[in-house]
Amino acid sequence: MKTIITKNIDETRNFAREFARNLRVPTTIALHGDLGVGKSEIARIIIQTLCGSDTIVPSPTFTLVQTYVFDKGKISHFDLYRISDVAELVEIGLDYAIQNDITLIEWPDIAENMLPENTIHIYISEYDSGRKIVID
User: Fold this and answer.
1) Which of 20, 54, 78, 98 is 20 to 30 A distant from 26 in Cα terms?
2) What's the mean per-residue pLDDT of the chain?
C-alpha cells in the first residue's frame, strides 16, 4: 500500500500522469471515493497521458462506458454509479474489458466479485486543500 498526499489539483494531475506511464494492457484500476473527490479527473489525465493530451474525455456517467484506442491497446472507462443490477455489468462489456484493456472503473463496489485479484485500488479522499491518494 502506498499513500500520496497532493496539495492541489496540479499535483493530483501530476500523480495521474506518472501513474499512467507504468500501465500495461490488461490492467484494472478501481477508483474509490466520494462524489466530487476527483475520480473522473484522475481517469481523464490517465487517458490523456496514454492517448494524447488533446483527447476529449467526457464523463461516462450517462453512457456508462467510454472506450479509447492508443498505440498499445484500448482503455475502457466505466462509471458504475447508476448500475443497480450486477447482470448489467456483462451487458456493458465489463468482463471483456477487464480481460483485454486498461480498465478504469469509477464506483466499482457493485463489480467487486468481477474484479481480478491483481486489480489496483485507488482510494481518493479530501485532505486539507488537496487529496489523499492510497494505492492498494
Assistant:
1) 54
2) 96
